[in-house]
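1st attempt posting a full record on here, be nice pls
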Amino acid sequence: MNAVQRFIRSRVLLLTASILIVAMCLSVLVQGQSQAALSRTVDQNSRGLYDVLVQAKAKDNGGLMQPDIATGQGGISFEQLDSIRKLSGTSVAAPISLVSRVTQNLESPRLDATDYLGFNAGLAGTSGDPTATDPSKWPAAESVLSDTPKKYRLTASAVSSDGHSDQTLFKTTAEGSLGKAKLVEEQVEGGKNVRIQGPAGETGIKFPTPAGGSEHNLFNLSVSLPMAPQVTESVVAVDPVSERALLGTAGDFLSPLEKAPPADARNAGAIGRHFESLFTNGISMDELKEGPDFLGVKLKYWAPLMTQYQQAKRDGQLTDDSQAIPLIVRSGTALDLKYSVKIEEIDDSGNVTKDVGTVTRSLDKDYLPFVSKSPFALAWPGSKDLSQLMGDTGSFSQGLYNPATWTTNFAAAPTYKDGETAANGAVDKSATPGDWVTVNRLPDKAANGEAVDQTQREPVDERSYRQNLETGKKLATPLAMVYGTFDAANVKEAAGDVNRLPLGGYDPAPFTLTKDASGKDANTELKPSLSATGLVSQSAGAITDYYGLAAARGYDANANVIDAVRVRAKVPGSWKQAQPEVEKLANEIRDMGLQATVVAGSAREDASIAVPGYSKDDAGKESPLGTVQQSWVRQDAADAVSGSLTATNLTLLFLTLCGAALLTGASTVSYIRKRRSEAGTLRAMGWTQRKIRSWVLAEFGVGAALLAVVGIVLSLISWSTATAVVSASVLVLYAGAAFVAAQQLRHRDVVDQEPQHDERLIAVDSPLTFANRQLSTNKFNTISLAVAVGVFAAAVGGLVALLIDIPRAAGASALSGLAAASIALPSIILGVSGVAVGLLLTMVTGRFELQAKRQYLGTLRAMGWNPDMLGQVRFFENAMVGTVALPLGVVGALGIGLLLAPYAALWAAIAGLVAVLCWIPIATKVVQ
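the predicted structure (as tokens):
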């Protein structure tokens, strides 16, 4: 027979080679799918809204970029911006800058109790609003107050929260009597007059100045409450045209800003007089509701502009240099500020006779910076809003009376220091504390000039983590013009998730407290501070253009005020396809003397930040907040993730196939000893030892040729160098095993006699001693099987270590988690298939002596051994083999783990131990 026929006749050689070939095909297929999934995931999530971030200077954070790119420090000129836009590789160049902080006083909160007097033509019939309810359909009078005045105690309080702890800003009490009002008709010169009058004996309720008192109107009794704390917002500047190009349709909210007047047409006095003239000359009801047209923009929020202009003019705040600043304001707020009023009915002695209830209101999604007049309008329990009977009066609301205060103090972005680096590459940070900022102050005087008692509330110190910004020389009080609103959540969604890059200011990254000051675990999202100078910030309260920045900062000429320019390259495709052109564009920008950071291929990554000096007690002792987590940007995340997980993929493939090849070799070496009788016959026929080895090696050559063909085909299909290398390694291991096996073909004469008095013989008195004797008699096969089991356990340990180490190897970025998840299932399948192939090959090795084992088990059965004792013989044989294999398996798994995945080496050793323990009962079932 030729070598091919002998190879086919040798079932073991055919079986082991077939198992190895099937394992190669399946493993390469699974690894190819895993690599494709990895590449697809990385490509789809590695290119954000822009490719290059340009700054004048930036701290090297070791590849981890903080999200605060609108720092307020400037450094880039408009000439440099124009040069960037003229580069052939630039598609979009969108500048952004931090303008300042803006502090505004919310108008006095009030408590409204329904005290509706019914329709009266003298009071309601002159509104002229066509949307008003027909007089015949007005409901009957109703009130939550009694006809006879009752005495009440009102306790007003405000509480702010940073998400970790609450702070009561004030708690003020006022008492007085309140009752149901009535209409009084009086005869006056020229006719009759109708007025609203409180019941006899009503004293009203008056909180300390600057709060007003209580008064009745057609629908409610309104009690003026203590002033709410000041609220501070930040403002950023963009070029609306390029910003819309950067955001796409998500930036349509900026379209009104594109129609803002040029710099020389923004004089605050001129614009204020223009709106006054509209009302002097007459304006239609529809224009009032939609907003008067101003250079093609319907100014829906014209009322705050009018009232603040008039108030600023009366106070002498406006000068000839004052400019109007067009703003797109944020809808809602993340500031956690609650205002509550507890209402109690009391007797003349001050004892509580009835708890009427507590009403609370928070700044929420309805709050608009620079616009909202009464965000703390609270309703008495049981009250209802009947003011809509008069029609749609919303457009006539006067809005905020007092202009906001603009300041550049404590407005810059926070700074951080680097700390330790974690195993997955994450870098710990430490925030740099600044000065203390005092909030919760009352004004020195009320609106009527009356002095304010400052002992009503205690000012609160908040830690600032920010520095002051530079300003120009011509500072003048600006006038806010609200052009529209934007939703910060929509902007955040447009920026993406895994590949989200910081836009600057109006899409801030939230902070989550992960460990408190005592080191205990926490999971609390932190809230911004009242002063907006703390570490946590919310989306900018408003967005303006660069003329607005010049007006707010007092610049009268072009200055280097651009903080950052977000540049999108004019090249399509994935991050990898665009990388050469993006690098070329970045280098051209660097030649201008600017810092250009390539962010294509970046991903967000959580940074752990220690926050010292967060609060202080009455004695002035400072205390830290703990450790917070914020989403930063990991540069070159795509390259790192792709490289590390590709290496893990290939190592899994190599370990699976080379482990299978080693087990194949062990099986082959053990099997070939069974063919010594053939070698003896050939030797007796005159064959030389060398010819006999060549004769056997020819059979192995057939298997090696099959492996080579399969390896070549797989390499061509996958077109992967790694597949070719792994296939070559498998072939080398198989050939090496064949050579070692051929060396075992040395015929030895078997002497058919039994020593009669050899002390080395083991007495057989139990299944354990019989199993021990059998293994000692067949040492070579025992050692071969033990080595095979040890190699199997070591391979299992290595595979498990690699699988466990995938999240760490991937890194700490969001892309890492997504990419690791994409290869998790293929990697598990690859690992499980490797374990299954290894287990199968050890079973094949264990079956070489199967016929002999069945013969002696039959003999034992004939001697009267019962099935339980025979089962024990099988178990003890495998247990002893496992005992020999255990050190090799555990130490081998530990070594492979330390080599390939040090952080999971202990798990590798445990997996090796479990693999041996699991092999013992499985192998026991093979021989029945």
